[in-house]
Description:
57% of the residues lie in helices and 0% in strands. The protein is mostly helical.
Amino acid sequence: xxxxxxxxxxxxxxxxxxxxxxxxxxxxxxxxxxxxxxxxxxxxxxxxxxxxxxxxxxxxxxxxxxxxxxxxxxxxxxxxxxxxxxxxxxxxxxxxxxxxxxxxxxxxxxxxxxxxxxxxxxxxxxxxxxxxxxxxxxxxxxxxxxxxxxxxxxxxxxxxxxxxxxxxxxxxxxxxxxxxxxxxxxxxxxxxxxxxxxxxxxxxxxxxxxxxxxxxxxxxxxxxxxxxxxxxxxxxxxxxxxxxxxxxxxxxxxxxxxxxxxxxxxxxxxxxxxxxxxx
Length: 279
């Protein structure tokens, strides 16, 4: 499909993205949580040249949950990449990154959702939450450790995932990890520390950084959806590998998370267009 047709399809899209075609976890084929982002139209504010080149400290201090940061990111991407700018301009619902979950709860949920369709995963997650007084607010390291693997299996959690949850909770209880230290870690430190938890790989950490911590400059080079989007955007013959992804998306810095979000939207629009043509 030509880029012109793709952009036309994007401009006509009015419903939330189909979760069945969002980011694909190459580690565990887990459906992406990008589809859980709520959409609301808004105007992009005017920014100065200084805003377009913030310091690393400013980027770290301004997560994507800040409306002004998203607006600055969009302006930067529109200027730095003409092709990506076309996708952004055609898609009239800018991303909204919202999450109120604690890092521990977000990581536990990521483990539970692995290798499951969204509907089945949510059913198991709801059962998991019901085990704790207070619901989600009661999902704490000590309380998770207190739930046996047998009890977890009774609600549909596999023995392997039960061991992953206990390993995560154990690392919190020992002090190796905490919500406070996670929030202070650099992106590199997060990957090093979180991948030491059983069942958590680089892809999961990338999704966690984007959708839970709202880090602005994360490029999930192992995500199939983002790779397909980059392939279509730049007219490549083959899916780009990690190194090519880094090279092609370098111009998106320091807002590669937002650029990646638009790659998922691009793939969704392409699938929608192909479905209409096949009818």
